[in-house]
Amino acid sequence: MAKEIEGKLKLQVPAGQANPSPPVGPALGQRGINIMDFCKLFNEKSKGEQPGVMLPVVVTYNTDKSFSIEIKLPPASFFIKEALKIKRERRLKIY
User: Fold this and answer.
1) What does the angle CA 93 – CA 22 – CA 61 come to, to the nearest 5 degrees?
2) Nearest 5°: CA angle at 59, between 83 and 9?
3) CA 11, 17, 19, 23: dihedral to nearest 10 degrees?
4) DSSP E strand stretches across 36-94
5) CB atoms within 10 A of CB 89
6) C-alpha to C-alpha distance for 27 and 24, rounded to whole angstroms
7) Model's pTM, two decimal places?
8) Mean pLDDT of 20-24
9) Nearest partner of 77 among 53, 51, 52, judged by Cα
10) What is the pLDDT of residue 50?
11) Among candidates 41, 51, 45, which has minimal Cα distance to 14?
12) Domain layout of the chain by residue ranges
């Protein structure tokens, strides 16, 4: 019998640094997804990426509480900042 999909969840998690603290833990816990299993799986799959790079992740979870993850490429803004050697985002102060 095929698994019935309950829903999908989109997150952005730093490569190799998933942990059960907010915002990852509460987002997964509300849906009954095993947080530690997600962290282990994500960290294992993202170990080839540069540490700390924000990776978009789509978590598909089923009614039986099993899940699968799809890790996408980092946002284009990351590559642009890297090419221009911008260390951090500057914000305008409005007075």
Assistant:
1) 120
2) 90
3) -30
4) 54-62, 67-71
5) 7
6) 5
7) 0.80
8) 89
9) 53
10) 86
11) 51
12) 5-84
For 61-92, how does the pLDDT look when each residue is reduced to its tens digit (9 = 90+)? 999 989 999 999 998 888 888 888 887 655 55
With H, G, I as helix, E, B as strand and everything else as coil, classify residue 12. Answer: strand
CATH assignment of 5-84, among 3.30.1550.10, 3.40.640.10, 3.30.70.270, 3.30.2090.10: 3.30.1550.10
Query: What are the residues facing 62 on neighbouring strands?
Result: 5
Evaluate if residue 56 carries a pLDDT over 80.
Answer: yes
- Of 16, 1, 3, 14, give the one whose Cα is nearest residue 67: 3
Contact 27/58 with Cβ under 8 angstroms? no
Rounded to 5 degrees, φ, ψ at 60 are -105, 120
Cβ-proximal residues to 49 (8 Å cutoff; 6+ apart), any chain: 15, 16, 55, 74
**Contact present, 67 and 27 (Cβ < 8 Å):** no
